[in-house]
Amino acid sequence: AKTMRTRIQPVATMLQFRLYGGKSLPSNLQGLLKAAANIGSVIGQFLFGYLADALGRKRVYGKELMLIILATILCLTTPTGRLSPNGSLIYLSIFRILLGIGVGADYPMSASVSTDRATIRRRGTMLCYIFANQGWGSFVGSIATMIVLLCYKHVMQTDGETSKVDGGRYRLFCFLTSKANAWRSLANHRRNLARS
Questions:
Q1: What DSSP line would sit under the chain, residue for residue?
Q2: What average pLDDT does the chain have?
Q3: Residue 180: how many CA atoms within 13 Å on its side-chain side?
Q4: What percent of the chain has pLDDT over 90?
Q5: Whole-angstrom Cα distance, residue 10 to residue 92?
Q6: ∠ at Cα 74 (25, 112), nearest 5°?
Q7: Shortest CA distance to 30 belongs to which of 86, 70, 79, 75?
Q8: For the purposes of burial, counting CB atoms within 10 Å of the CB of 137, is it exposed (0-12), middle (13-18) or buried (19 or more)?
Q9: In angstroms, how far is the first alpha carbon of the chain from the final one?
Q10: What pLDDT sits at residue 42?
């Protein structure tokens, strides 16, 4: 949950300049934006935990990945130029809640499905791999954010054109990065299902 909260911080800082001309985000919307994924995570853990028990893990497993992909695309397509600044933050917060539901669902599902399908000797190793990859994903995501910001540093500081950061190349980069991560996760899902 901490990683979802820290990933939005660079975006919130960029939105200060893009939407509010460098002024602070409204405190109530800033709180909602930063807490949205954590709120969704709690909902997703309970909801998908119940669904996995009621319908079976095999039927539910993989649906959370589809939800994560959809919510990521919807977060990336926040129409900051078409909505009011407050409306943009609300839009982003709603889809971050949806993203949190998917991520929250993936926490217990991935751990339980991989341990169900692993031999007794390999269960601990599989759990270590699963939770270590969350840290590696946060690390790579943070580096990717810094690289993109460095690429646009001149445009933002010298020209003052923060809308260029909100443009197509930045979103395309984020979209391709999320698709690569989603593809890797989908391959892991399929491999786990094939073992059963």
A1: -HHHHHHHHHHHHHHHHHHHTTSPPPHHHHHHHHHHHHHHHHHHHHHHHHHHHHH-HHHHTTHHHHHHHHHHHHHHT--TTTS-HHHHHHHHHHHHHHHHHHHHHHHHHHHHHHHHHS-GGGHHHHHHHHHHHHHHHHHHHHHHHHHHHHHTHHIIIII--GGGTTSHHHHHHHHHHHHHHHHHHHHHHHHHHHH-
A2: 77
A3: 9
A4: 21
A5: 14
A6: 105
A7: 86
A8: middle
A9: 29
A10: 94
Are 103 and 68 in contact, with CB atoms under 8 Å apart? Answer: yes
pLDDT at residue 91, as a whole number: 92
Structure tokens given for 155: 């445009």
pLDDT at 95 exceeding the cut of 70: yes
pTM: 0.74
Tokens of residue 130, six digits: 């699963």
Q: What is the pLDDT of residues 141-153, one digit of tens each?
A: 778 777 877 877 7
| The predicted structure's pLDDT at residue 110 | 78
